[in-house]
Structure formats: structure tokens, C-alpha cells
Amino acid sequence: MFSVPSIEPSPVPYIHMGKFELERLVDRFFILVHVKNPILDRDVVKQYCCEYLKQGPEFDLQSCLILLICALASVAPDFLPSGALGPAHRQSRSQSTGEDLTMGRTYFMAAEQRLGMAMTQHNSLAVQCLCLAGIYHMYRVNPMAGRTMFHSAGYVMQVLASTGSNNPDESSRMGSSLYWACFKSERELFAEIPIAIPAIGRPSQIDSFPLPPRERFMTWGGSNDSWAQAEQDSWYFFLSEIAMRRIMDKVAEHVGNFFAKIDSCDPVSMQTVLAEYAPVALELERQAIAWREHLPPSIRFPDPPTPAGTEWILYTRQPFFRTVELIYRPFLFACVHGLDSEPLTCEFANKGLRTGLQMPSGWYEDVRAVVRTLRYWEPAVSFLRSYIDVILALDDYFSGGDLKCTGSLAQDLQHGL
């Protein structure tokens, strides 16, 4: 399904950054990337930046980290709420969201020359570099390379835990963030690409969630109060992702066990297994709803969904609705295949179906934005053309129905969308 983009050898241009440009990119990184992946310390990064400006890019992991920060800041898009994606939104995606893919690739190529040291230097800086490299590959729609980086980061974490040398253990603030970033990132990809066992196993402590950030805010590009609020919200978002990841893993395990037990040709077998699974499904849904109800206001989302006003809300609600739909998928499977028509089975099947079909207002314009995004990335990632073709085919198939598809996406694409 995924292809690895071909890499053509080319010389890495010399990179010269002034103080203003470096600070701009670091600010952009902390605003757009770090808030979703809080694995760095602002004060430490500020110190690395000062050394980078004095000495220039050296062949060490400190320079590697700075170059990765600049690469991510260059390719990370600004978040545009649904209301900003109206029909008048016709600019190219790079113009409208501040991305610079060429410079991002330049910074990353320079970082890659230093990234090999992260494989042999078993310390927290190596883990940070590998994690950021994985995030960069995910931004560039290259999940296989991203999985490799996250797996390597998890391996280094395991080495540190086993040797106790410079160990960012689960009890330290930064160590716990690194541990959970490796755990969460690799398992998210493992759920979609199960080709290797994750490097990090289950946490050794039930209560070993990331510790809250301490007050350590830089003053570049904003007030301390705004940085502090962003840091706090980032921590809440990180915690919510970890908690939901553990719920999703349990759901996937139970649903997988269900389909392993059933005989799809035997209605009696299906009814027996469904009767055993029904109370499990209710408990799993209770846990997912409790998770949503205990979210802090900054990342809480309504149900049924409405257009997301912030990126945190967008990324928080996606796994929730996906998880609830997955919980009730066995009942939908039974109904679709005519294997069980009991009232409870039909009720749960309807619940799963409704969860999958609940759409916020303005969702169709968001589909246009997705097609614009895929088209923008297509020259760099050729297999995205197949994604666009699937969306266009579905839009044409469902045009004129209750889903409010117009069937005009293909025509819009020809005219620049």
C-alpha cells in the first residue's frame, strides 16, 4: 500500500541562518509541532540555539536537533479551522499555510548527515532526534520511514532503561515524556502497519503518565502567559492521547478476539459469541465516554461533532469516534451478513453505524481541503494519486444522496479546486 519515495543522491547545500531566522523557526516549531509532541525543553533548545549561532552547524546531535527543528518548522502547516476553508479559499496550500517544503528538505538532509550518531549514542538527545525525524517523515507522508525512526527511538529508550546510564526514566519529567512519545507513536503506526513488534512494551507503572511541565518559558515571539497556557494545554493533549491509545488497544484486542472466535457460516456460533461480547462492548464504550467527559475545556469536543475550532479538538475527537465505531463493528458485521437479528444486536449495529455517519456541518468543504492537500503533496508522494481517485469515485457514487455529495470534486480539481 505504501511506497518508499526514491532518494536521489544530491549535495547538501551549506546552510546559513541568522539569529532572526533561527528564532522564527524555533518559535514556529514550538507553536505548531511541539504542542502536539512535548518532548523538548525550551530552555535547553534556547541554549543549543546560542551555541549553533556561535559555532555554526557542527557534526553532533545538538546541531542535528536544531536542524530537525528547522525542518519541521518549515513543513508544518498552520491549522485552518473549517470556517476558513470556504469556497473562496483558492490559494495554493503552501501560500495559505506558510509551508516551505524545499527549505524543510534542505534542513532535513543536513540533519540526516548527523542522524546516524543517534543510533550509537544512547542518551536522551539521541531519542529526541530520532523522534523528531520520525515526525518529519510523517509530515512528509512516509509512514514506513517514520516507523523506522520511532522504532529506533524506542530501542534506545530500552537500552537506557536496561543500563541505567544517562537514563531518562519514567519518573523524570522529560524522561516520562520521551517514554510515552515513543510508546504512543510506534503503537499508532503498529495498529495500521503491523510488521514489527514495538520496541517498547507495556508501561511498568500504571500511574507513570507524563509529569506536568515546569515553568521554563522562553520569551521569543510572545508573552510568558501565552507560552505557559500553550504548554499546559499541550500536556493535557498529550495525556489524552496516551489514555485514548490504551483504550484503543484494548478495543482492538477484544474485537480481534471476537473475529478470531466466530464462524461466519454458523449463526448459532455468532449469537453465542455476540452474547459474550455485548457486556464487554458496553464497558469499553463506558470507558471511552468517561475519557471524553473528563477532557479539559481546551481540548473538549461536543457529541455530535461540530466544526473543530482548534487543532487539539480535531485530533482529540478523531480517535474517540473511531473507537466507538470499532466497538460496535461486530454487531454491524452480524446484521450485514444476516447472522443475527436479535433486537439488541440491531440496536448496537445502528449505534455503530450512526457513529460512523455523524458528520459536522461544513464537512464537504473539508473534503475539498483534503483533496487540495493530497494534490499538493502528490509530486513528492506518488501513491497519493490513488487516494485522490478513491475520494473522487466516492463523491461521484454518492452524489445526490443523503450525504450531500455534489459529485463536482473531479470537475473542481480540473479547474484548480
TrEMBL record:
User: Which PANTHER family does this UniProt record tie to the protein?
Assistant: ZN(II)2CYS6 TRANSCRIPTION FACTOR (EUROFUNG), ZN(II)2CYS6 TRANSCRIPTION FACTOR (EUROFUNG)-RELATED-RELATED
Q: Which species expresses this protein natively? A: Pseudopithomyces chartarum
Top-rank taxon, per record: Eukaryota
Q: What is this protein called?
A: Transcription factor domain-containing protein
Which InterPro entries is this protein grouped with? Answer: EcdB-like_regulator
